[in-house]
Design goal:
alpha/beta; Rossmann fold; 10 helices; 43% helix
């Protein structure tokens, strides 16, 4: 095994351990976590706003029909997966963490959802999924941690049907939140996080074979802010996302590519 491969495996293990521990903490009171009254993962209104903005932008870019079959890569506990399923899509969520997949599938069973399932899979090699088996591939805040995003994009391309679409989001390299503000407020950076710009993302997408690549830059708000500040967050996003130069410093770079 080469030194590069060893390094990639070390990164995977670090990410695996991080999310195994995080999910164990979040679901410690499993009964309360499951029986929250909605299939959606219980979180604050600020988190829901942040996630809904991503989901709605992804769907707007993808332009899917209601019967589309979606793969979500790096689904975690299903924060994005469950809202997509509630919109009527058939969706499969992949994640490397055994614990999050088990907890997510418990939630599927608890709420008796028929159009969603979760599988433990490596983003670089899907087991049991043939070529051209999905209409769309989504990934939210996951590719930024992958040790080899080129392999992950190639595998996503393989399982996409012809004329299928992929929509992924990345952290914007030019957003002050990641480069300055986090340091000012002593917010610990996420393990193995990587920032991207449009040029880097386009190069990876084209290398994997995707065509008609388009971008959307949005979100200045922070999902962890107190919900009482949510109205101000919404106003800030509405205004700043409409100012040409400033909008390029928003936090999220969302990209869409097509498989011809």
């Amino acid at each position: 095994m080469s030194s590069a491969t060893l390094k990639e495996e070390e990164v995977k293990k670090d990410i695996y351990d991080f999310y195994e521990n995080q999910s164990a903490e979040r679901t410690e009171d499993l009964k309360s976590w499951l029986d929250s009254g909605s299939p959606r993962i219980p979180q604050s209104k600020s988190y829901y706003y942040f996630e809904d903005r991503k989901i709605n932008n992804a769907l707007k870019m993808a332009k899917l029909s209601q019967c589309s079959r979606i793969l979500e890569i790096g689904c975690n506990l299903g924060q994005m997966t469950f809202p997509l399923a509630l919109k009527g899509f058939e969706i499969v969520g992949f994640d490397l963490s055994k614990n999050v997949i088990e907890k997510a599938n418990m939630r599927v069973k608890h709420y008796d959802l028929k159009n969603i399932r979760f599988e433990r899979q490596d983003a670089e090699k899907y087991e049991g999924h043939p070529d051209e088996s999905f209409d769309a591939v989504f990934s939210f805040s996951a590719f930024r941690y992958f040790p080899n995003p080129d392999k992950a994009l190639s595998e996503a391309y393989r399982v996409l049907k012809k004329n299928g679409v992929i929509v992924i989001d990345f952290p914007n390299k030019y957003c002050p939140w990641f480069n300055i503000i986090k340091r000012i407020f002593f917010i610990k950076p996420h393990i193995h996080d990587k920032l991207y710009d449009k040029k880097q993302i386009r190069a990876m997408m084209e290398k994997a074979g995707f065509k008609n690549i388009t971008f959307n830059v949005f979100l200045f708000s922070y999902k962890g802010l107190p919900p009482v500040l949510l109205p101000l967050m919404k106003i800030a996003d509405f205004v700043l996302e409409r100012i040409p130069l400033i909008r390029n410093t928003a936090a999220i770079l969302m990209v869409k590519g097509e498989k011809e």
